[in-house]
Write a structure and sequence with these properties.
alpha/beta, 2 domains, 6-stranded mixed beta sheet, 19 strands, 34% helix, globular, binds adenosine-5'-triphosphate
Length: 492
């Protein structure tokens, strides 16, 4: 397809996109780097004539595109599919068998071709998950299914919005090679907000700044472009301002030491053991990063701490000085914990306003069901301004782009300054500046001990200087599933 954008101006309630002139010539694949805003989501909607919220309002021209021949992979599309599948599985659950939409079914549903489905399962390292329920997959597993599903549509043009988000190092590497192979037969638009995610094989790069197409260039020109240095300088000052806000409202609380202890932890499902023999203690004031490949059980482990994993009562856990299951209420525990994760993002399906989402952090609720105090509203309003979302205070959470939703959920987790701040791949969907802002702020929160961090990210670049303790899951050939290796300066 020869796709040409001319004098395009696009505006939705929450984002804007502007392109004076851009030609994606037939056979070309492009990398798109965006400093700010959900450019990938809007491009995907424009090229497929679909909209997740209200129809997109735009002026100018887009020529040469056949929307039925374009497929999009994005975090928002993954979220929407998951919601549909949960609804569908729920509505079928009145029967005697446990309904589940399998990974195989999700891919097969697009091509109705057994051989192709098996080939895609193999190419994307999903064969072992073929009969797993789509809704129970880990984040990285789900991302790979979304890509397989898009390829199964057999359209000649793919828009991949942050295709590497949530993938572990190994799968990021294999995906790059896989996309290169695909690019020989179809056109791909890879939209990223991390400079290291632009595949080396990409020849053309479009740079978007503040939602506007700033320039187009070759990959080698991109490699020497100064934009990253400029952005890094810009984000430093903003983070200081955010920390000043957190400091202004800081309060102190005393907690038992250790904060959390898991003895011989084990999580298993009928068909597999995820991990076993996990012994882990979180001492007061120590920050931890949880590491390991997709599907090893990182989110599961954090769910045991947070208390929303069904197997948290079958494990031997002490938290905040109490044995779990000894009569404590889940709210007693949760009031000391702030949490950001893809699972929470998925659960946050109520339709409250952007401001209320942040306020709901004071009550640990999904949605807001109590009348907040004036001070709580004032603090949440300050947060919104800091995130450049003041104008969206009354906009419904569901109307916002995925990255904006994620920023709100991060603010929701931090706003009450919890003892434990659990950040399970917090940056998913954030643009470059949003990610820098949050990363710098977390670094400062950790350094000043404003909260104790439990942190998951697959990117080496996301490492926080203040985190020196690691729990890493490694596959154990001698036993089924993973075991955990803990390391850090105060541990032997
Ligand atoms: N109800 C369930 N039944 C069977 N398997 C499940 C169920 N729920 C989760 N799993 C599996 O448990 C494993 C661990 O999932 P988890 O989300 O903890 O992984 P993770 O380490 O956080 O992965 P990622 O890096 O992709 O986020 C995955 O393989 C997932 O498919």
């Amino acid at each position: 397809m020869d796709i040409r954008f001319t004098q395009l101006q696009c505006r939705s309630s929450s984002v804007t996109l502007a392109i004076d002139e851009w030609l994606i010539a037939s056979q070309q694949s492009w990398g798109v780097f965006s400093t700010e805003g959900d450019v990938g989501a809007i491009l995907g909607q424009l090229l497929t004539h679909t909209s997740h919220h209200q129809p997109l309002d735009y002026s100018g021209n887009i020529t040469g595109v056949d929307p039925s021949q374009v497929a999009v992979v994005s975090l928002l599309a993954q979220q929407a599919l998951l919601e549909d599948i949960l609804e569908q599985d729920d509505s079928e659950s009145l029967g005697y068998t446990d309904p589940k939409t399998t990974v195989f079914g999700v891919i097969y549903g697009q091509c109705h071709d057994n051989a192709m489905t098996h080939k895609l399962l193999q190419e994307l390292d999903l064969t072992h998950l073929s009969q797993s329920s789509f809704s129970q997959l880990s984040t990285g597993e789900g991302r790979r299914v979304m890509l397989a599903r898009a390829v199964a549509t057999q359209v000649p043009f793919l828009v991949l919005d942050e295709p590497y988000a949530g993938l572990d190092v190994h799968h990021r590497h294999t995906l790059t090679e896989y996309l290169q192979q695909l690019s020989h037969t179809l056109q791909i638009l890879v939209v990223v907000s991390r400079e290291e995610d632009l595949p080396q094989w990409i020849e053309h790069v479009a740079l978007f700044s503040h939602g506007k197409l700033d320039s187009v260039m070759s990959k080698s020109e991109w490699d020497n472009h100064p934009v990253i240095n400029q952005l890094t300088a810009q984000s430093g000052q903003q983070s200081e301002e955010l920390l000043a806000l957190i400091r202004r409202h800081r309060h102190s609380a005393k907690f038992a030491d250790p904060v959390f202890e898991l003895h011989n932890g084990r999580v298993a499902y009928s068909d597999k053991v995820i991990f076993s023999g996990v012994n882990w203690r979180i001492d007061n004031g120590v920050h931890w990063q949880v590491k390991g490949p997709n599907g090893c059980g990182k989110s599961t482990l954090l769910g045991l701490i947070f208390g929303d994993h069904p197997q948290c009562y079958s494990n031997d856990i002490d938290i905040f000085g109490k044995k779990r299951g000894s009569g404590e209420s889940i709210w007693e525990i949760k009031q000391h914990i702030g949490m950001v994760s893809s699972a929470l993002h998925m659960q946050y399906r109520v339709n409250c306003s952007a401001l209320d989402v942040i306020v709901s952090g004071f009550y640990d609720s999904i949605g807001l069901y109590q009348k907040p105090t004036q001070q709580q509203v004032a603090i949440a309003t300050e947060w919104l301004a800091m995130l450049h979302m003041g104008h969206l205070a009354k906009t419904a959470f569901k109307q916002l782009e995925y990255g904006q939703q994620r920023l709100l959920l991060i603010a929701r987790a931090i706003v009450k300054q919890p003892t434990l701040l659990i950040l399970d791949e917090p940056y998913q969907g954030l643009d470059y500046l949003g990610r820098r802002l949050i990363k710098n702020s977390l670094e400062l929160i950790a350094k000043e001990q404003l909260s104790q961090l439990l942190y998951v990210s697959h990117y080496q670049q996301d490492s926080l200087d203040s985190i020196e303790h690691y729990i890493e899951f490694v596959l154990d050939d001698a036993q089924q599933g993973y075991r955990a290796v803990v390391s850090g300066p105060t541990l032997k």
